[in-house]
Amino acid sequence: MPSFSQMSLSKLRTCEMPLQYIFVEAIKDWDCTVVCGHRGKADQHKAFLEGNSEKDWPNSKHNSFPSQAIDVIPYYPGGIRWKDKEGMYLFAGYVLRISHEINIKIRWGGDWDGDHDTKDQKFNDLVHFELVLS
Questions:
Q1: Is 28 strand, coil or helix?
Q2: 15 has which bridge partners?
Q3: Measured between alpha carbons, how far is residue 55 from residues 40, 43, 60, 118 in Å?
Q4: How far apart are CA 130 and CA 132, in angstroms?
Q5: pLDDT one digit per residue (tens) for the chain, 134 residues
Q6: At 7, phi and psi to the nearest 5?
Q7: What is the enclosing helix (H) or strand (E) of 35?
Q8: Angstrom distances, CA of residue 76 to CA of 9, 13, 31, 69
Q9: Rounded CA gap, 19 and 51, in Å?
Q10: What pTM, to 2 d.p., does this model score?
């Protein structure tokens, strides 16, 4: 059974409990790595300048503490495959199913509007998951 590294666990712990719960469930069957949970001012500004985020500090859900957003990517033998979009889509479906089954509303960065059409996005962030707060 896969398990999180200490680095992934420390990043996971910076997130809201519902996100932690989703990914504790996800890791049971799918090896993955937490890339980012909470993001401070300098890291958020850098992500914005590099085009990895559409939002500058303090407007990202990564900027709250605990974080309302998390970046997670599948982990395969040999490591992370940053260019494996198909694998990220498959993983996102798995995560979205878990969140649905445990009744936690999330948004995925490959389908921002939640209409199940992944071709209508202006900005794809395939490792990004965030809580939908009512």
A1: coil
A2: 67
A3: 13, 12, 6, 20
A4: 6
A5: 899 999 999 999 999 999 999 999 999 999 999 999 999 999 999 999 999 999 999 999 999 999 999 999 999 999 999 999 999 999 999 999 999 999 999 999 999 999 999 999 999 999 999 999 87
A6: -65, -45
A7: strand 32-36
A8: 18, 23, 7, 23
A9: 24
A10: 0.96
